[in-house]
Amino acid sequence: MPDSVPPLPVGELAVRFGCVLRGDPQRRVAAAAPLAGGADSIGFLANPALLESLRTTRLGAVILPPAQAADCPAATAALLHPNPHAVFARVAAILHPVAPPQPGIHPTACVHEQAQVAASAEVGPFALIEAGAVVGARCRVGAHATLGAGAALGADSRLAERVTVLAGCRIGARCLLHPGVVVGADGFGNARDGVAWVKVPQLGTVRIGDDVEIGANTTIDRGALEDTVISDGVRLDNLIQVAHNVTIGAHTAIAACVAIAGSTHIGQRCMIGGGAGFSGQLTVGDDIVIGGFAQVTHSLTTPGFYSSAMPVEQMGTWRRLLGRFKRLDALNARVRRLEAATKVRETGQEDDDD
Amino acid sequence: MPDSVPPLPVGELAVRFGCVLRGDPQRRVAAAAPLAGGADSIGFLANPALLESLRTTRLGAVILPPAQAADCPAATAALLHPNPHAVFARVAAILHPVAPPQPGIHPTACVHEQAQVAASAEVGPFALIEAGAVVGARCRVGAHATLGAGAALGADSRLAERVTVLAGCRIGARCLLHPGVVVGADGFGNARDGVAWVKVPQLGTVRIGDDVEIGANTTIDRGALEDTVISDGVRLDNLIQVAHNVTIGAHTAIAACVAIAGSTHIGQRCMIGGGAGFSGQLTVGDDIVIGGFAQVTHSLTTPGFYSSAMPVEQMGTWRRLLGRFKRLDALNARVRRLEAATKVRETGQEDDDD
Amino acid sequence: MPDSVPPLPVGELAVRFGCVLRGDPQRRVAAAAPLAGGADSIGFLANPALLESLRTTRLGAVILPPAQAADCPAATAALLHPNPHAVFARVAAILHPVAPPQPGIHPTACVHEQAQVAASAEVGPFALIEAGAVVGARCRVGAHATLGAGAALGADSRLAERVTVLAGCRIGARCLLHPGVVVGADGFGNARDGVAWVKVPQLGTVRIGDDVEIGANTTIDRGALEDTVISDGVRLDNLIQVAHNVTIGAHTAIAACVAIAGSTHIGQRCMIGGGAGFSGQLTVGDDIVIGGFAQVTHSLTTPGFYSSAMPVEQMGTWRRLLGRFKRLDALNARVRRLEAATKVRETGQEDDDD
To answer: What pLDDT score does B3 carry?
Structure first.
């Protein structure tokens, strides 16, 4: 939970982020808040569905698109910008800064004598830094976190509480890994031999770029022979599975509970909805958007929005639809009989009915 | 794993839980068991499918509905009650009580001098209690658990091993959080700015009511501006994702591997099957039952049972059905041609075929 | 990340694993590698799609099926075997051996005086071994791992970092549990009583056989009255939920993010694709293969391949298909009217259209 700072004049914020200001530049805001917040706070409008809340807001200031300026009450300072959400994110980060690392190693932490920990880094209680591991400048290693042998954490990165980064994995600068993340566990490599499975050693590592954020309890397996790769600027939500040898392109964002099977490659700037799944060995191109719960069972190359979500119905309706679906062969046969009897069947329909 | 107690007379149990007893009130039972258990144990019948097992049981006592009394062997004491499962749950809790907390702080635990830990509470090995955190009376904080700065744990609650509760989150009384739970990690808030993502600070917390149970490795994110809220009596199973600003109403039960996207509101007394998913920004009313694997992509207000699960088929059958499904446009066109040729098409069907 | 050993002659490997060798038996390899690897390494070919990579490989040796021998460059030693993947797995394990346990208890670990830890076992930093727990010969208990009261870990097994095995659970020999695994948390047992839920004590344990591997952050709940059972040789990937009283037969392999609801029984030698789900109280026989994302809502007895995955489509296409699907009742009614008008309807079709 971020800290707070003294109130800031909205004029200063407008200048800093290139907003057109409508209102008193000396007005000060102390906190980020929703549209229902108070006079000492600043909010934003990005979703037009909230226009009614804007009209009745008592906020001290609102960041909003120029087109909505007229809907902002006169008592509220308006900071006009074409991307209010991004400006709000930056303003909120200034008003509620993340506490800086407290340099030093907690007395209960266990740091191997062959590990390198920057003097400006913070290592928390019960953390473990193994031989050859490198902790960069101003990093924070949270309580109960582990950085395995030979692993590396770039400058200004943070392992939250109870993150486990295993041997040899490398994490870039300015990354944030939330509690329970596991980086570098063995991939699921098994060779069948008779009825039993032989474990296939997982010899690769995980390479994570700069500015990556990874959500709680997400798992990223090490590669089998080559590495699993998460590129710069990727955002992963909670409880995601990234299997061995997966690669994820820069600035792709993936919502919670997505499963990505082995050796699948996802491009840059993709957006993946929660609960979606990817079969293994696929290639998904750049700028592809996958809806929530979609099942990606083949490669996709054309940018665009893809889905296979099946919306809920009341149980009686759903059962009837399922029944119809499972009798589609019979329905097709009935149509074919009608076509034969009425002689309306056109030629060239071979692929329509079998 | 709960402890055990001396055997109890079934007459005492019948009185305590309002059952009609058929059999010797002095008969004693020492353990809870399935219908296949022994003469020193007590079981229950709630599922009529197990009637045959009831008829051949050798248990010392069975809790069952009055209507099934005749099927209980004479050698087995019958405790008749309209809700055998709930009575059994309470009897089992008496016969196998959870060990009480052992007041005190383990010497390896790390408790901040500005934290408040009740004298009757137990803090386990390697646990971390940060500044300003409050641990209520008779709480148990398990090994490797963390209670973050300013967080609060109500009386008689238990954080199992390796639970992480982050700064400012509040948990009510009599709660039980299983290993690996993460409460209060940052929600997935990202604003797009060009190709890159700007992190949106997550300034809310998580508020959890009384009598809540949360399963292993489940994650509950802190709110973006307001709080994520889990109401009294909610039951969450394992590996569930509760995104930022979700609210869950009292006494709702959610089975494992459910994903709930941001700002979705689920009502009271709902039951959600395993593997189901909810899109963001939805409202699901009270008393709604969602089947396993269902995909809730729109709001639901009418109480009832909803589903969209797609049952497995043998691969050949499934491929043929999928093929038919993907050619539904063509089938519709064929029916339309038949209607045109035979002039049976009725008026007012415009929305049936395009 | 495994260690390395001195280079080995391919002749020795061929003799040891029963391969026919084509090439110089004195040639030495030091590492396992993909087909794109270098002259000091050994790879394999199992997937015919990689034949082109084989033809241009510069590897020192390749393990491959006899039928592909002619496609292996003359400069590369060929080890011919009908099961190249399994042989490769064993060769890789020799070239990159897992570091043996370093016998002893780390000074920061917490081992109860009534626990039994074999002298040859390794107990890592911040590990917790509770009263009555047994750690077998040559086991490794990783950092931040917990072995609960009365729990047992068979010889040569390994709990990776941050594994939690709760009271009374038993794990066989040569098992490997990856970080974040939780074994023996309470099953999801709740009895409804009015609007509230009564917790049903979970009195069983978890029994895990020999040679079992369990992926990161997977959860296996203890049984309600009897035990949850994972048989010998089972392979579980990451983020899997195994509910109370589930049993999984020997040598079954389950990919990531699978949810198995309570009391479901899965047979031997099954293969379950990622993201699949199983309803509770089902029986799935031996030798059954379930495709990724399939929803198993009824029992299956016949060996074979089952699926219900719904492949993604472009959003416009998907919406149109969904619309057709949801109007299948209307389409059926239209076909019925056509049949009535044209008198082509055959008798005995009652179950086709309602």
So the answer is: 63
CA–CA gap between residue A201 and residue A197 (Å, rounded): 12
Contact: A195, C251; criterion CB under 8 Å: yes
8 Å CB contact of C329 and A321: yes
Of A182, A277, A308, the CB nearest to C180: A182
Closest CB to B241: pick one of A235, A257, A345: A257
Residues C41 and C120 grouped into a single domain: no
Mean pLDDT to the nearest integer, A244-251: 98
**Is the pTM higher than 0.95?**
yes
DSSP string computed for B140-152? EE-TT-EE-TT-E
pLDDT at A48: 87
In chain C, the number of structural domains is: 3
Check residue B347 and give its pLDDT. Answer: 54
Q: Is residue A85 part of a domain?
A: yes
Select from C88, C232, C238 the residue whose CB has the most chain A CBs within 10 Å, as the one to mutate to test that interface.
C238
- The answer to whether position C300 is within a domain reads yes
Q: What are the tens digits of pLDDT across the range C300-352?
A: 999 999 999 999 999 999 999 999 999 999 999 999 999 999 987 655 554 45
CA distances from A164 to A114, B70, C156 (A): 19, 57, 23
Q: What is the pLDDT of residue C344?
A: 79
CB contact under 8 Å between A92 and B180, yes or no, is: no
Whole-angstrom distance, CA of residue B181 vs CA of residue A109: 22
Do C126 and A110 lie within an 8 Å CB cutoff?
yes
Given A95, A119, A139, the domain boundary residue is A95
Who among A1, A176, A256 is closest to B205 (CB)?
A1
CA A304, A310, A312, A314 dihedral sign is positive
Residue numbers of B annotated as active site: 244
C32 interfaces chain A, CB cutoff of 8 Å: yes
Domain that holds residue A42: 8-95
- To the nearest whole percent, how much of chain C has pLDDT over 70? 96
Cβ <8 Å between C321 and B329: yes
Tell me which residue in A193, A203, A259 faces C256 most closely, judged by beta carbons.
Answer: A259
Mark whether C244 is an active-site residue. Answer: yes
Contact B306 A318 (CB under 8 A): yes
Q: What is the mean pLDDT of residues B313-324?
A: 97
> Touching check for A238 and chain B: CB below 8 Å?
yes
Per-residue pLDDT band for B5 (boundaries 50, 70, 90) equals: confident
Flag whether residue C277 sits within 8 Å of chain B, measured between CB atoms: yes
Whether the per-residue pLDDT at B354 is higher than 50: the answer is no
Contact B164, B146 (CB under 8 A): yes
Q: Are strands C190-193 and C196-199 parallel, antiparallel or unpaired?
A: antiparallel
- CB atoms under 10 Å from CB of B152, counted, come to 20
Residue with more model confidence, C7 or C345? C7
| A 104-143: CB under 8 A from B | 106, 108, 125-126, 143
Kindly report, residue by residue over B205-215, the tens digit of the pLDDT: 999 999 999 99
Q: Is the predicted ipTM greater than 0.85, yes or no? A: yes
Strand, helix or coil at C307?
strand
- Answer yes or no: do B217 and A217 touch at CB < 8 A: yes
Judged against a pLDDT cut of 70, whether residue B336 lies above it is answered with yes
Same domain, A219 and A290: yes
The CATH number of the domain holding residue A76 is 3.40.1390.10
Q: Which partners does chain A have (≥3 C-beta pairs < 8 Å)?
A: B, C
Instruction: Tell me, yes or no, if B295 comes closer than 8 A to chain A by beta carbon.
Output: yes
Classify A221 as helix, strand or coil.
Answer: strand
pLDDT higher than 70, residue B265: yes
d(CA C6, CA B199): 48
CB atoms near residue C294 (< 10 Å): 28
B72 and B157 together in one domain = no
Separation between Cα atoms, residue A180 and residue C161, nearest integer Å: 11
